[in-house]
Each structure stands twice: as C-alpha cells, then as structure tokens.
Amino acid sequence: MLKVALVLAVAIAVQVIAAPAHISPSLKQSLKTKGSVNVFVTLKARPSIVLSRINSLSFATREQRLITLGASLKQHAAASQESILEFLATKQVTVQTFWISNQVSVKNVDAELLASLVARPDVLEVFEEFSVPLEQPVDPKIVQKIAENEWGVKIIGAPEVWAKGNTGKGVHVANIDTGVRYTHQDLKDNFAGDYGWFDPYFGTATPDDRSGHGTHTMGTTVGKNGIGVAPDATWAACRGCATSSCSLAALLSCGEFMTCPTLADGSNADCTKAPRLVSNSWGGSGGQSFYDDIVAAWDAAGIIPIFSNGNSGSRCSSVGSPADSGETKVIGVGSTTEDEELSFFSSLGPSVYAQIKPDIAAPGSDVRSALNTNDAAYGTKSGTSMAAPHVAGVVALILSAHPDHDFAKVTELLYAGATHTVASTGGSCGGIPDTEYPNNYVGYGRLSAIGSLP
C-alpha cells in the first residue's frame, strides 16, 4: 500500500497543471437566469491514475484487490480534494464529495464563486447538476402469478441450467434502481442483509421501493418461484433513482456503494462485500461519459456492468448512455418479445462511438415479475429495463459455474451462446443487415442460458 500511495502522490502532482477549466454555455445561462446554481466540480487528478496502477498489479485474492482498490481511490480523492475543500469551507455552500470519480458537488454557487472555481489550477471541469431518466416501463399491468416459470425464464432455457444443479448459488448480484421490496415472498430469502442496502435519498435502514420498478427488475434476476433467472444468487440494492429519474449524486453514491459496500447508515465500509455484477435499468441520451469513471472502477473490482439499451424505438443510433459507453466495458441490452421479434421500443445502434449496440438482446416485452404493493403482488412490464435483468441472471449463472471468469470470459460465453432466432426487421442500421451477427438490433443475438452453459 505504501508503494501505491507514493506513486499516486507523484501522479497527482503531475496532473495538476494550470489550464483553464471547462465550463458549459448552459451553465452560464442557468446562472444568469437563476442567480445561483448547483454544480459538480471535476478535479484534474483523475481516478484513472489509481485504476491503471491497480490493474498493473497481481493480487492473491479478489478480496485483496477490492481492499487495495477502495483504499487507493479514497486516498487519491482525499489528497487531491484537500485544497478545494479548505477553500469551500470558507463559503456558505453545501458540499458532497465523491471518491470514485474524484468530484465535488457544490450547492448554491453564485457567479463570484463559479469564477473562483473555474480559475483553480486543480479543477478540470464545472457543470450543472443533472438527473438521468429511469427507463420507464411500457404498458405495465397488475396480474396474478400463474405461470410455473415466466416466459422469459423459459425461452432462454434457465430451467434446463437449473436441472444441472446451477441456480446461481454462491454469486452475489446487485442493482441500482428505485429500491426493492425485500419482504416480497420471492425475494426475502436471498437478500444479503448487512451490506446489502444503501439509500442516498432517504437514508432508510432496510430496502423499500416507492416506485415498483426496482422490485420488478430484481425479481427477474434472482426471484424465486419461476420469476427469476438465478433464484439462489444473493442480492443487494442501492436506490439510485427516486421515482422517474436518478440524480447524478445518487448514482455516484450507488457506484461507490457497489465498489465498497457499507452498512445502510454509510458506516463500516467493507470492500470485500462488493457484488460480482450490477444491473442498471436507467440511462440518458447517447454519447455521454458521466458514468465512465464508475464503470472503470467496477471493472478494476471485477464487477460486471449491465445496462438497458433504452426505449427510444426503431430509430438507428438511438442507444443511450451508459449502455453505449465507448471507453469502458459494459453489456448493453436490447429487448425481444415472446414471439421472437424485436420489441418495438428497443433502442438501436450503432453508438456515437461507431460501436455495435446492443451487445445482446433478451426478453423485455410483457415480462411478469414481483411488484412493490404487497408481498405477493405481481405485474407485467415492458422495456429494455426488463431485458437487462434477464442478462444479469444469466451472468450470475455463468459466474456460479465459473467463479474466476472475468468480463472478457463471461461475455465470450454470453455472446457465443446467444441464438439467432429473432425475426428480421429488414433493417440495416450502421450498414449491417440484421440477418448478420453481431448487428445493431440484437447484437450477438437473443440471450440463451442453456446456450451459454450447455
């Protein structure tokens, strides 16, 4: 750790070179209109210094890697933020710090303070706070649980994998969503308990869900009684989204929680409790890099990120961020129907980075899962929000069978096992017909648990 600390100290000093910080025209306009604004300040000492160092080292266990990663990121942020926090302490502002992205949130910034922040040699960028949309389900319905196994679970062949003894046992998964009704009859038995919940909005001690979106998505990943793909995996959750939107501050806090979990009150961090994957059914417009630092940290931690591709429909290059991330490793997920057709709402590639997206497609239309209204409530929802949790469940099954697999090996199995059974739309987004694979409609094909784990 001492050697890592010395390297980081030198790197921070090298990075803090005087150069004008970037400030967007929209921030200037907001300040002119409102008189004061809430901003995020990005420091020049980027976390990539830490991640490069961690990724160059060998560790005897994942636990050692997680502990070193968490401590190094926190140390890096503390050292590089010290000066700006001393400066802000003299101002009448509210401050929140983020070690995972080395950013500082500052409330009620006026023109004078903004000018001072932009002029600082340690500041890379100042931008106005924003929220990211939750991928809203299409045509939700409240229904009774009647199927032995839900159609999405069956069509991907999950029961055939279960019959071989693989139900996801030994794998710890997580989602960032609206929360989870942890007392639901299909979710209560595999909740992680301590280190399994964090709520940046309300500080609740135990999981709840004021929307229903997060309960539904978690049910599809790990729910019992035929609604979930990996019913014996344990789960954790973080409320990154309040109801219909997700504040950047909450998403960053959840990113930190996934990398180095704490108890529900934020105390007693234990990085060894980090999950193996995080499912995310939210996203903004394409071409944004606001979550790249978090995803890069997850990669260094051996956490596989799964993101819904978006519900913007049949227009080429409609994929959203972070599913389209150009610099980091993510699995972007499109949606299919029970009739093996592309869901009409499923966003398409290519990304603004000219990448094929989605990477894979999964059941996302009329998916029945748990609801938040009572412990035996179920309903159907449609969206790429419903597709991504199916992929998360199959990734959990792969990790249960192959505990040491990393992102590259997991995705190799995931994509190689995908079927080419989704009906053609006749389209050719990005110049690639949807009869060739991978393509910008379903990526490598439709998810298949049994195909990936024959």
**Strand composition percent:** 15-25%
By DSSP, the count of extended strands is 17
**C-alpha geometry:** globular
Q: What percent of residues adopt helix (DSSP H or I)?
A: 25-40%
Count of DSSP H/I helices: 13
Question: What kind of sheet is the major sheet?
Answer: 7 strands, parallel
Structural class: alpha/beta
- Average pLDDT rating: 93
Task: Outline the low-pLDDT stretches.
Answer: 1-16
Describe the protein in words.
The structure is a single chain. Helix 8 (213-222) packs parallel to helix 11. A seven-stranded parallel β-sheet has the order 9-10-8-12-13-14-15, with helices on both faces. Helix 8 (213-222) links the parallel strand 9 and strand 10. Residues 1-16 have low confidence and may be disordered. The protein is an alpha/beta fold and 454 residues long. It has 13 helices and 17 strands. It has helices at residues 2-15, 25-34, 48-56, 62-88, 111-119, 151-155, 158-162, 213-222, 248-259, 292-301, 384-401, 407-416, 449-452; strands at 22-23, 37-43, 95-98, 103-109, 123-128, 131-133, 138-143, 172-177, 197-198, 234-239, 245-247, 277-280, 304-308, 331-336, 360-363, 367-370, 378-382. The relative contact order is 0.13.
